[in-house]
Amino acid sequence: MDSQRARQIISSPDEVMVSYNGVSVWIDKVHEDDRTATVHLRQAMEERSEVAISELKEHRQ
After folding, report:
1. In terms of residue numbers, what domain contains 46?
2. Keywords, A to Z (predicted)?
3. Is the distance from CB of 6 to CB of 53 less than 8 angstroms?
4. 11-52: per-residue pLDDT in tens?
5. Left (φ > 0), alpha (ψ -120 to 50) or beta: where does 51 sit?
């Protein structure tokens, strides 16, 4: 995924399925470096991680 698409997903009114290392996540924020984003697991909102945007995968429904 690229940073532009990650930003589109964050602002989309529709639910977009995204995974990181095979685990379903929500994208919370794209960082100013345009290479990393903060995500959290769909089940547990408390755990947040900073990950490489290139490692995020969008799943078409």
Report:
1. 3-59
2. Sporulation
3. yes
4. 999 999 999 999 999 999 999 999 999 999 887 667 899 999
5. beta
Q: Could you please report the per-residue DSSP string of 1-57?
A: --HHHHHHHHH-SS--EEEETTEEEEEEEE-TTSSEEEEEESS-TT-EEEEEGGGEE
Q: How many domains does the chain have?
A: 1
**CATH no. for residue 31?**
2.30.30
Q: Look up residue 52 and give its two tokens.
A: 């490489």
pTM, rounded to two decimals:
0.87
The pLDDT of residue 42 is 82
